[in-house]
Design goal:
ATP-binding; about 160 residues; Nucleotide-binding universal stress protein, UspA family; Rossmann fold; globular; 5 strands; nucleotide-binding; five-stranded parallel sheet
Length: about 160
């Protein structure tokens, strides 16, 4: 039914559990997996003339976010390899994560977007909930929203 499934992650414990459920779903479908982490765009300091020496350059920021994305998606990649699924991962940059998720799903030919109903706890949880709602309202592709019954233990 589905040949290529986009699984999103923000690195939180909830998101990691959702991603593992996504891999199991992909295994049942015999589908390829594309894992996606959307990092915020680089923000230049307000006073560009006076950049503090500790402020990362754009290149340093991009490299750091790519490393973070690889770390977040590492468990997904290992799960896919263990399940003998074809898989890839991608770190994308955008301040509008939902639109980037929709764009990547379209550009990469994904049949399904698999994502959590919520991600990070606190304010971040509200934000990812809004990301999920925006994805649902901006895509014509099927979206499978995974909801955990209880909060996973941090680990």
């Amino acid at each position: 039914m589905y040949r290529k499934i986009l699984i999103t992650t923000d690195g939180s414990a909830v998101s990691q559990h959702t991603a593992c459920a996504g891999v199991k779903f992909a295994q049942q479908m015999g589908a390829e997996v594309l894992a996606l982490f959307v990092a915020p765009d680089y923000q230049y300091p307000v006073y560009v003339e006076i950049i503090p020496p500790s402020y990362p350059s754009e290149e340093e920021y991009v490299a750091q976010m790519r490393r973070l994305g690889e770390e977040y998606m590492g468990k997904i990649m290992r799960s896919c390899a263990g399940a003998n699924l074809q898989h890839a991962c991608m770190t994308a940059f955008s301040d509008t994560a939902a639109l980037k998720i929709v764009d990547v799903a379209e550009q990469e030919g994904c049949d399904l977007i698999f994502m959590g109903s919520h991600g990070r706890s606190g304010w971040g949880q509200l934000l990812l909930g809004s990301v999920t709602n925006k994805v649902l309202s901006h895509t014509t592709k099927p979206v499978l929203v995974h909801r955990l019954i209880s909060e996973p233990a941090s680990g």
